[in-house]
Amino acid sequence: MTKTPIDLSPDYINVSALKVVKRLTSAGYQAYLVGGCVRDLLLGNHPKDFDVATDANPEEVHELFRNSRLIGRRFKIVHVRFGREIIEVATFRAPHSETQTEQNFSDGGMILSDNIYGSFHEDAERRDFTMNALYYDPENDTILDEVSGLEDLGSRQIRLIGNPDSRYREDPVRMLRAVRFKAKLGFEIEQTTAEPLYRLGLLLRDIPPARLFEEVLKLFMSGHGEQSFAVLREYDLFGWLFPDTNRLLETGNGAELIRLALASTDRRIAKDMPVTPAFIFAALLWQPYLEQREQLEADGESSYVASFEGANQVVSRQLSVTSIPKRFSGPMRDIWSLQYRLPIKSGKKPNTLLQHKRFRAAYDFLLLREESGEQLDGLGAWWTQFQETAEEDRGELLEQPTAPAKRPRKRRRKPENQAATD
User: Could you report the per-residue pLDDT of 281-306, keeping only the tens digit for each?
Assistant: First the structure.
């Protein structure tokens, strides 16, 4: 183990995390800041979360902090709460022995239970990437490095600790973490770490949809979504998250629409503006929705039924891969359905549509469709002008509704018994 003196900016170090470390060490335990917070501090970035690693077991940590609670089954940890802020405390982990394999691993090698505690050295070896296995001792201003993490951090390289095949099988989500770090940090994935990504993506099928939904949010809603999309495609992983969309990426303008939607979300996050997964999922699943809707219409369904049922079928298939909570799938459906109401430029409907709670999202989506190359006859520009025009003057922009063609009246046939009596 190497111990490297370091002078980290105290302005970036969370005071609550330091309090947790100090109380643990004062009680006779080992305790360090660890993981992404240390990595970001060394890169000069402001960490979002602070984690603590200790040799105290979860029950001992919980007993030490009245403002804490135990969480997790597969990986038991302690959350220490300071107001709205949470400091996560994990006990040093040890590798699984051969006798524990059947109990703690699935047939595919995925870890089912990970509450085997060990030493500092064992904990460092159990972490995923070398750059995330750096420990900071705030009392001595020292970095503890067991796995050459400082060297990889300096060379801007993402390297798995241990055998990549085995580590990915233990937890397939590590593949998505590698992609996310490459997108977020601009690092390169080391060759032996990168090679299995192309052939082990199918392991993601074993991950619960709820967990994959959370990973999708981290990939696409953390300020680097556009780059995450590119890296997922680079390593053939996108299709394991969005199989219907992946099948259609090379047709039409679907890939460009997704890229533009993610780029727009990245800009909003950079400006600290609100974003919603509903908008991202609307773009990610737009092409499958169009395909399903058109197929239903070709089968004779009405436009309304095709729109409603098409959305149902697309969402249902996606739910088998990633969860989409109803609080997001509902607004996503609204964004889709409004795309078919926006072309109506006559009567009272445009003014009414402006009052719809999803209008702004649907309008933004319409602009992205046009920007991606879809030909909509200047519909986006018309709606922009309509919104900027005073309400009393909007009538000049409205088209005259075309009267529906009159159907020829059908002659009523007389009943046979009436014809016989005439």
Answer: 999 999 999 999 999 999 999 999 99
- The CA distances from residue 230 to 52, 60, 122, 204, 219, in Å, are 33, 44, 35, 18, 11
**Which tokens sit at 256?**
């460009």
Residue pair 371/261 in contact (Cβ under 8 Å)? The answer is: no
Helix-, strand-, coil-residue percentages of the chain, each rounded to 5:
55, 10, 35
Buried b (16+ CB within 10 A) or exposed e, 109-141: bbeeebeebbebeebbbbbbbbbbbbbbbbeee
Our answer to whether residue 123 is catalytic in this structure is no
pLDDT at 101 over 50: no
Q: Where are the domains of the chain?
A: 1-163, 208-389
**Residue given tokens 């607004």 in the structure block:** 331
Instruction: Check 7, 11, 40, 49 and give the catalytic one.
Output: 49
E strand residue ranges, 83-176: 85-91, 134-137, 142-145, 157-158
Which residue in 51, 123, 171, 266 is the catalytic one? 51
8-state DSSP, 414: P
User: In the CATH hierarchy, which fold is given to the domain comprising 1-163?
Assistant: Beta Polymerase; domain 2 (3.30.460)
> Strands, E, within 162-251: which ranges?
188-189
Please tell me which residue in 40, 123, 128, 244 is annotated as part of the active site: 128
Domain 208-389, CATH among 1.20.1250.20, 1.20.120.10, 2.40.30.10, 1.10.3090.10 = 1.10.3090.10
Closest CA to 337 of 313, 368, 306: 306
- Reply yes or no on whether 49 is catalytic: yes
**Does the structure show a pLDDT above 90 at 175?**
yes
